[in-house]
Every structure is written in C-alpha cells, then in structure tokens.
Amino acid sequence: MSEARHIQVSEANEGQRLDRWLKRELGAVPQSLIFKIIRTGQVRVDGKRAKADQKLAVGQDVRIPPVTIPDPVTDKYILTDKDRAFIKSLVIYDDGDLIALNKPGDIATQGGTNIRRHIDGLLEGLKNKKGIVPRLVHRLDRETSGVLLLARSAAAVRELGFMFKGKDIEKQYWALVSPAPEIYEGTVNAPLMKSTGKDKEKVVVDEEGQYAITDYQVVDTAGKKVAFIVFRPRTGRTHQIRAHAAHILKCPLIGDKKYGYDPEPFLAQNLAPRVHLHAAFLSFSHPLTKKKIELHAPLPHDIKKGWQEFGFQDKNISVEFKGKS
User: Fold this and answer.
1) What pLDDT digit, counting tens, does each position of 217-263 carry?
2) Predicted local confidence at residue 72, as pLDDT
3) How far, CA to CA in Å, does 291 sit from each of 76, 151, 166?
4) Per-domain residue ranges of the chain
5) 307-to-143, 146, 239, 250, 310 alpha-carbon distances in Å
6) Strand runs labelled E in 155-224
7) Which residue in 68, 134, 261, 266 has a CA-CA distance of 20 to 30 Å to 79?
8) Closest by Cα among 151, 130, 90 to 293
9) SS3 at position 126
10) Closest to 140 in 3D by CA, of 320, 313, 277
11) Does domain 169-309 have CATH number 3.30.2350.10?
12) Superfamily for the 74-164 domain
C-alpha cells in the first residue's frame, strides 16, 4: 500500500471501536502497529486525530495511512465453505438482533499468538442479507464450551455490555470436579490475580487481587470421587471458576491440569483431555425488546461422556440460587 486510503463507515460498522474496525480492514497488520498509527495521528476520522477506543458513526471518513501488510495469501485466514457450514452449525438462537452459539471446547473465542482460526474470525459466515457481521458480546476460555452471545447492532452490543458489567445476566456453568467438595452449597468470595511465578497464565488467590465471587451448588456425586456442580460467577475474572474450585473448594475441575487435576484415577474412564467446564445456561432481558430470554446449550459430545460415565443427568438443568447474580 503506497498511498493513504479513505473509507466511509458503513451501517454495518456503526458503533464499532476504531482499533477493532482497523484490525478488520488491515487483516494481518499487528495490533501494536495499529495502535501506533492511531497514536501518532496517522489515522484521521473526518480529518481529525482519533483515539483507539473511539466509536465510529455511519458516514464518517476514515483515513488509513500506508502500512506494510504481510502477504494475505499466507497470513490472513480465508473462510472456506466448510468454515461457513461449521459456524452456522453452532447457532442455537437467532432472532435477527441476537445470536447465541454453542461454542465447542477446542476453538478459541478470539485470536492470539499462534491462533489463526477462532470464532471471531469465522463470524463473517453469519453475515446477514444487509452485510452485517455479528459481533462478540463476551468471551469464553478456549477449553470452555457453551453459550456464546453475539449481537448484530451497535445498540444491542452496547446494552449487553452494560448488562454483563451490571450483573443483569444470569450465567450458570456445569462442571465435573474431583474430589467432591466437603460443603455442597455456598459462595466463594476470594480475590484473584495473575500469578507472578513461572506460570504467568495461572490465576491465584491473593488479597491484592480483584474481588471475585462465585456461587456453587452440587447437583450430584459419585461417592467422594467426583461431583457434578453448577457454578454461578457473580464477577467475570479470568479463570474464576477454575481457580475458586481448586484453591478454595479444593476440588479442581476434571481435565484442568493447570489447577491441580490428577488424571491418574481416571485412566480407565478415557475422559476427554480438556477442562470439563460448560457454559450451560444464560438468562437475561432482551436488550431491545425487553423480552425474557433463556438459553440452554447442550453438552458437547467430548465431555458429555464424562457426565454419562458417572451417571449424572446431562439434560437441561438450571439451579435456583439465592440472591442476584
């Protein structure tokens, strides 16, 4: 690219952050370079300097400076017909404004180091007749399956963002843990922060961390060896359920070697190697119509066999917790 480009913001991109919009336009350009060209004033919106988190409006003129883009043939992921069929197969709800997917536990929600194929990069496969591509409203860890919410309009994305932050959305996660906890119902209130040790991706309980609250209730047990628990996180910290289960309840999730799971007692069961954590239930008021929405995501086949192996119910279950989420 040798000359600056000027692009008008379309209706499909109304309300999107400038940095995220540029990432879609520029493809394989590193995020650090995108921040740099914004910070140094090379990107202009209607002729004025802009900020990375600035929300775009329909009809605005965005100047994109010349940047070196790696070869798109080798660096930009191109959707195939198989990809489009895959992302469509995950849809469990679609009312035109909102979409819910049942995300598998073997694909990341968004891109990162050495991650080329992810849910966010496949959303073009859900583009509607107006050309609007839905946007992520929240995230799930790569190994966590279950309900993932998307929205097609800026208004819905914005309102749902407020709802998640304001705890107006009920989230329930299913998990298998080992051993069963000593107390079968309660609330964990323990601050969490990223580890400063060798494993920086791990989260630990620390008084200097961010407050984190998780309700839990045991649904069933297989003796003291395994328990089926429904967790309701009231906050949204990284690895919150996994860390609270391991550090406070002393019952790491099955498959979660990062937090102390021991696979040795389960070799005969041939369980799926991933974390047995599933975002099974989401309940909220529709951001536009205010209609009550309840979304249930069936267990995926890879971890469903764990529930069946221990004789646990694997149909729709939602627990009545005390107090607001």
Assistant:
1) 999 999 999 999 999 999 989 999 999 999 999 999 999 999 999 99
2) 45
3) 39, 15, 18
4) 5-70, 74-164, 169-309
5) 17, 15, 22, 20, 6
6) 170-177, 185-189, 192-194, 203-205, 213-222
7) 68
8) 151
9) helix
10) 277
11) yes
12) Pseudouridine synthase (3.30.2350.10)
Query: How many Å is the Cα radius of gyration of the chain?
Result: 22
Nearest to 194 by CA among 183, 205, 185: 205
315: closest CA among 200, 234, 210, 219?
219
Question: Is residue 323 scored above 50 in pLDDT?
Answer: yes
132-158 pLDDT, tens digit each: 999 999 999 999 999 999 999 888 988
Which amino acid is it at 143? E
User: Which of 41, 59, 43, 52 lies closest to 17, judged by CA?
Assistant: 52
Task: Check whether 293 has a pLDDT greater than 60.
Answer: yes
- Does 74-164 match 169-309 in CATH topology? yes
Residues facing 6 on adjacent strands: 63
Domain 5-70: state its class: alpha beta
pLDDT band at 1 (very low <50, low <70, confident <90, very high): very low
Most confident stretch, 33-42, 188-197, 238-247, 312-321: 238-247
DSSP assigned state of 184: S
Q: How far apart are CA 210 and CA 206, in angstroms?
A: 8
Active-site amino acid positions: 141
